[in-house]
Amino acid sequence: MTIRAELLAAIMLAVIGPVVTIGVALAAFGTLDERSDEVQRAGSRQARALELKFAVTDMNGWQTACGYDGGRSRALLAELGTAFGAFMALDADAFKALQAGREAERRSPSARASSSSCS
Predict the structure, then answer these.
(1) For a tag on the chain, would you pick the N or C end, based on fewer CB atoms within 10 A?
(2) Same domain, 6 and 53
(3) What would the pLDDT profile of 22-75 be if each residue is shown by its tens digit?
(4) What secondary structure does DSSP assign to the chain, as a single string?
(5) 45 and 57 share a domain?
(6) Together in a domain, 41 and 96
(7) Which residue range is the domain that position 42 belongs to?
């Protein structure tokens, strides 16, 4: 092989080598991105499943407690439900004030309580 052919081959390899390397790297990054999305979706599903698992366990605990205390905890649960409903009504008023730009009303519990229908 002549020097000219060897130099031409060396130059071609010097140009083609990095191009091939970049192509392989881009293909690998594309696969990595797909795998990352897959892992994120699986993690999200697992988090929802665990949340559901613990919610069911919590409900089972409340039911068991109600059975052991002869039903006395039912009144507490009803009271908590009522208090939560009142809180959600105040929260709805505060959110409406926030959306309307009424900063003072949003920050003042007395302003929300006086305008709320659940006081």
Answers:
(1) N
(2) yes
(3) 989 888 887 887 888 889 999 999 999 999 999 999 888 888 887 888 777 778
(4) --HHHHHHHHHHHHHHHHHHHHHHHHHHHHHHHHHHHHHHHHHHHHHHHHHHHHHHHHHHHHHHHHHHTTTTHHHHHHHHHHHHHHHHHHHHHHHHHHHHT-HHHHH-HHHHHHH-TT-
(5) yes
(6) no
(7) 1-70
